[in-house]
């Protein structure tokens, strides 16, 4: 992952090694949330905006992707794949997944919903401004009517 000033200039590398993806600034701009394979499976991480203090937030036997921080900075929602569903660097569509919620300090991690979806279900931050709800995509694959 890299940062670059909005007015141009040199890019700055923030992460090294592993597969890193899905960066998103916290609402206060102090942190960048992302997912990485640094510990084997894909997990949620957080670092200071300059790349310092890279901290693994989730640590379980699932592949966790796309952490999105609520506008009030108190909660984080992310999508989670079972460990046998895919390789850690993959985030595939068309499969059963789960949405998980946790406090911004990593406490109180819990599943809130099982759904059919996957890549594309919650790739971008879709929290409502009031930090009470968020949008996501769930779908069904329709049979070919031939």
UniProtKB/TrEMBL annotation:
Start and end residues of each stretch annotated as Disordered: 1-21
Domain of life: Bacteria
PANTHER family hit by this protein: PROTEIN TOLB, PROTEIN TOLB HOMOLOG
Family: Belongs to the TolB family.
Protein name: Uncharacterized protein
Organism of this sequence: Hominenteromicrobium mulieris
